[in-house]
Amino acid sequence: MMDSESKNESYLIVDIDDLVTKAILIDRINGSFGIRGVSEASTTVDSPDLDVTIGIRKAAEDLGRKVGRELWGVKGPSRDNRFLCSSSTGGSLYMMVAGVISMISAESAQRAALGAGALLVDVFSKDDARPEFKMVEQMRSLKPDMFLLAGGTDGGAVQQVLELAHLIRTADIKPRFGSEFQLPIIYAGNIEIREGVLDILSKEKYATTAVDNVRPIIEKENLGPAKEAIYDLFMEHVIIHSPGFKKLVSWVDRPLLPTQAAVGKILYAYAMERQVNMLAVDVGGATTDVYSVYNGVFNRSLNADIGLTYGISQIMKEAGVQNIMRWIPKDMSQKEVRNIVGNLMVLQPTSLTSDEILVQQAAAKEAIRMGVENHKKLASRLKGISVKGTLDRLFEQVLESTYLNMMKTQVIIGRGKVFTQCQTAEASMLLLDSLQPEGVTEMMIDKLSLAPHLGMLLDANPETALQIFSKECLQRLGTCVGLSGKSGLEEEAMKVQMTKDDGTVLEMTVPFGELTTLSLGSDEKAKLHVKPRKGLDIGKGNGKELITEVVGGEIGLVLDARGRPLVPSAKKEVLEKWLEALKQRQEAPSLAQRSG
Amino acid sequence: MAGSVEAETRSALFGSKEWVEMSRLEELAFEKDTLVRKVRRIPALGEVLVGVGDLVEPETVLAKGTVWNPDVREVRINEELRVFPEEVKKYLLKEEGDEVKEGEVIAIHRSFFSRFTRVCRSPIDGTIEVFSNTSGRALIRGKPIPVDVKAHIPGRVLEVIPNQGAVIETRAAFVQGVFGVGGETVGELVTAVDSPDEVFTAEAVSKEQGGKIVVGGSFITLEALRKLAATAAKAIIVGGMDEEDLTNFLGHEIGLGITGQEKTSLTLIITEGFGVHPMDERVFNLLKSHERRQACVDGSTQIRTRMLRPEIIIPL
């Protein structure tokens, strides 16, 4: 809902990462809000500039020239626009969390920290395998930006929480930047011992704040207050120590947030507005983020050091070179692949050769696969709740170790240059191979890379933020119809009949192991009948027919009969054929012949 | 003189400079004659052993001190004495901050008119760092470890950093590579190939290269690398090598691009990239022109936002 003051306002929104400062102007165009312009400048936190506002000013002034408006005044951003900002400079917000039990309060604390956009440097608990002195060593050596202490339900554990507080006090942890400052600590545990904990974590040592418990009762998680406290302390105690941020903070109309928090906010709002389950992946140079919303529950996980420039050798180390090679649709020796990976890391070329693109995309698939595996651990039902019920229900709960279920995922989204700097077919193949959607799933990418900006706009003007994110920012690649299960190669896997709004009927039989498309434009909808063969599932059960409505996209409707779990073909020509299938947007006449 | 170079523990450029053209990364330094300033510090407070204006050699110790010992032992005093944790305090013979010797009694419990005596001894020489009343345990940290910092380059002490180290200045040729492994070393520069596009094979390795900093061409084979290490050469500077060979040589995957602490006696600097890459001609010619001179090299690399590249300093 638009607040009253937002009706006639325009917004200058800036996101700052380590390399680039990106500014956008959102204003009314022909009566409705839209993106008036985008501009970029180099980030100026490091020497020789040592002032983040220089880069912001350059980006804003350049944007002003583009749109023909004065966006920057003598003393900062023009007050004609509301000024919002997010930042991931300095490699994000480094946090440590602690809780009494690793799988209960410490896990809730992790979810709060990650959900607020942090990079977790360590997690401590009373059931930690490390002896206490090792934990103290680790707390001292890793130097976080912030600490979140949880533990005990309200009225629950006392002694163990106090012992954790004593441990943190003993460690005398210094913040990452500026050892003369006090490390901010948030206490979000048992509310009844708040005073005791605050006494232990005295003001001389730490800047301690207490908020509502992240786990007030064992059956319920309450992450909101802890996340809000993280946002507040991020602006007041962390980012303020970076060059120029004190000035910047005085200019912003709303609190400055970590970039990843802003991304999470818009993704969550989008999923909630559409009432869908959503899985989004963001593959950067040094990190891989996974965001999910299942049944209204938001989760974010982060694989630090897994990325496509700094982090690409780490992908090879963790996934193994063979797992990267299995996705490359071309004969390349292990030696060639390893050299390309090494050079992508050490040289970080700005333009890539065709072989480098193939290797990078293959590495991205492994990065996402590992990211999603990691995400499953956090996107899970709350642990520690006693399971009552029938034996069937017990088995069901045991089996459902995570919310993440591709058959129940309606939307998948890709973020990062690896998705935006390639053809839509390649971006689609990245999502298909790495996430392996099942059932009917819409595939999208954040084409304009403006999710952080729109996440920042969300609190000020949610209606506009969602409308721009949905209409201008997200690019619909297509909708995937993915079969779960296995069958014999070339056996008939599914019969598909698609009836477009204009009455055109397209039919196709897809053999197992094949990937093909049906033409359905971004603005088109169709009624779909899918009948899988026995042994395969499209979401209705073994061999059962699905009737649903689908929307199109750049590559249309993707019929993925390669089965799940997907095993990439050892034949390079098959991998190439799959990619080619996505490149050929099938039009109705040729389909009619094929269906015959 | 073309310009000057300064660094914390590594070198970074300032002043006028001559950049290597497009064949190499733009930000890599290439200086034929410049002032190199290196800031050399111990990782703690200690004693500085040189004064402003002193002439130093690479092996000259500039400062020395001690750092915390990472060896911390947890002693479960309550279990040794067989008492409740909260009772331990009254049996302690030492307090937080006291120095202890290995085997020294730190707590004693006599019971039943001293007929039953239990003691708790220190497992190491060190200091009692923390004693916990609630757990009945103590942490004993090993004795501080002595550290020092050497000059690494010959030159003059430009500035003393009180209690920490000094800034050393020297005239030198200065080149950065793209990636390296192994830390700082100093030795005589020798060229093993005739041209920058020549592959450095095992046949080109000789005993005379032992103790030297060897310059290769476009590529070094794994066999040559192993043979070179066996001759006790101090470093190899080469255009390229296979990433797979580097992994085999080190015995582990590189993973994150943060190096310098590898357990290898041979420092390795790649100037162009992985694979076969003729060494930039100007770099090769510069190194060749300084054949038989002393070179100070460091393979430490950090591929991150604040990037550090391996470096070659040839004092003039």
What would your notes on this structure say?
- The complex is a heterodimer of chains A (596) and B (316).
- The longest helix of chain A has 25 residues, at 354-378.
- Among the domains of chain A are: 4-87, 2-Layer Sandwich (Nucleotidyltransferase, domain 5), CATH 3.30.420.40; 90-242, Rossmann fold (3-Layer(aba) Sandwich); 483-596, no CATH class.
- Chain A contains 19 helices and 26 strands.
- By secondary structure, chain A is of the alpha/beta class.
- In chain A, the strands form 6 sheets. Chain A has an 8-stranded mixed beta sheet, with helices on both faces. In chain A, strands 3-2-1-6-12 form a 5-stranded mixed beta sheet.
- Chain A is 36% helix and 26% strand.
- In chain A, strand 2 (20-29) and strand 3 form a beta hairpin.
- Chain B has 316 residues and is mainly beta.
- Chain B folds into 2 domains: 3-66 and 148-315, Phosphohistidine domain (Glucose Oxidase, domain 1, 3-Layer(bba) Sandwich), CATH 3.50.30.10; 72-142, OB fold (Dihydrolipoamide Acetyltransferase, E2P) (Beta Barrel), CATH 2.40.50.
- In chain B, 10% of the residues lie in helices and 43% in strands.
- In chain B, strands 1, 2, 3, 4, 6, 15, 16, 17, 18, 20, 22, 23, 24 and 25 form a 14-stranded mixed beta sheet that branches. Chain B has a 4-stranded antiparallel beta sheet with strand order 8-13-12-9.
- The interface between A and B is medium-sized, with 34 and 31 residues.
